[in-house]
Amino acid sequence: MYNPSYAYAGQPPPFPVVRLHGLPFDCSEADVIDFFCGLDMLDILFVHKGGRFSGEAFCVSAYPLQVDFAIQRNRQNMGRRSADDGKDLVEHTGVLWMRGLPYSAGKDDVMDFFKDYKLSEDLVHIVLNSDGRPTGDAFVEFANAEDSKSAMGRDRMTLGRHYIELFPSTPKEMDDAIMRGRPII
Predict the structure, then answer these.
(1) What single-letter DSSP state applies at residue 170?
(2) RRM domain: which residues (predicted)?
């Protein structure tokens, strides 16, 4: 039976899904539902990579036409905080987690990204998956907490064409991530 609410001349309506990127790492389903207040979201799928939330989710809407309304909320902050709020509230330990590196990036590229800081190759840890391929993540150890906090000014800058996200981290988180994969030595 043809439903006249769809304007897709003889074609079935598109699958009503919206991809979210750059979500806060403590984001919950309730946060996403609040963000899309007034829209009917049937299901929310949070994407995990390597056992960690990737900051990405897919939301299935009840109606294809609501996808257009959802897309109008592009680049808006989510409820209580945006993805980068709170980064200044985290205690810095001298370790930063980089996300979004080009898979071809090496330690020299990371050192060039942070060229205003004294780094050596042994302080840059590019994380590889169990197959030995880069994950797009790296951990960088700075001389002190002040340097890592200052280096956060490079958050959301680009390396080549890639948008790099920076997060304060800890030596334990770095060690755990390295143990799950294998860092480039």
Answers:
(1) -
(2) 94-185
Strands 165-169 and 124-128: unpaired
**154 contacts 113 by C-beta, under 8 angstroms:** yes
State both tokens at 152: 């956060």
Facing residues of 162 across strands?
A: 159
Q: What is the pLDDT along the chain (185 residues), one digit of tens a residue?
A: 334 444 555 666 678 899 988 887 777 888 888 888 888 889 999 998 877 888 889 999 988 888 888 888 877 777 544 444 456 657 889 999 999 899 999 999 999 999 999 999 999 999 888 788 888 889 999 999 999 999 999 988 989 888 898 989 889 888 887 777 655 54
Locate 22 and state its tokens: 């750059």
Contact 134, 103 (CB under 8 A): yes
Q: Give me the domains of the chain, ranges plus CATH numbers.
A: 17-71 (3.30.70.330), 95-183 (3.30.70.330)
Give the integer Cα–Cα distance in Å for 110 and 183. Answer: 14
